[in-house]
Design brief:
Elements (H helix, E strand, L loop, with lengths): L7 E4 L9 H7 L15 E7 L6 H8 L5 E10 L7 H15 L5 H6 L2 E3 L5 H11 L4 E2 L5
Parallel strand pairs: 1-2, 2-3, 3-4
Antiparallel strand pairs: 3-5
Length: 143
């Protein structure tokens, strides 16, 4: 079955944040946007590495959102198995949400669920979220 919903874009540093999520989602036949591209109306997963936290690559990838209308889906903490301390994971989550609040309304950022890439049901959860997340928002331009 072909996924006819808007494409799903992975936002995060391709080398440090995305991890194996791209291949897991592709195997599940989700409609993925090619790496490094983003169009108005895309569904978006925000990927952040638990082992690296926000990097220059993370920030650059968020800049690609400026001025676009997107459908935010969730924040995915990648390499979550590397960081076993929940308080460190929460710190990374807070840092990512603070960065997202520079381009997205705060209420939208606050509503994004946090998913861990080590969850065996991750692909199913993302698939379910893409079915219900239909609220398109316009991202702010940098100040």
């Amino acid at each position: 079955m072909v996924d006819l919903r808007p494409p799903l874009a992975l936002i995060g540093c391709p080398e440090k944040d995305v991890g194996a999520i791209e291949s897991r989602l592709a195997k599940a036949a989700l409609n993925l946007r090619p790496k490094g591209t983003l169009e108005n109306g895309d569904r978006v997963l925000f990927c952040i590495s638990a082992s690296h936290g926000p990097t220059a690559g993370t920030r650059t990838s968020l800049e690609s959102l400026q001025g676009k209308s997107i459908i935010p889906i969730a924040i995915v903490l990648t390499y979550a198995d590397v960081v076993t301390d929940d308080s460190l994971r929460e710190l990374i989550n807070c840092e990512e949400r603070a960065l997202l609040a520079t381009v997205l309304p705060e209420n939208v950022v606050d509503a994004l669920p946090l998913l861990l890439d080590l969850d065996p049901n991750l692909v199913h959860k993302i698939s379910e979220l893409t079915k219900s997340a239909l609220c398109e928002v316009r991202c702010a331009h940098a100040s």
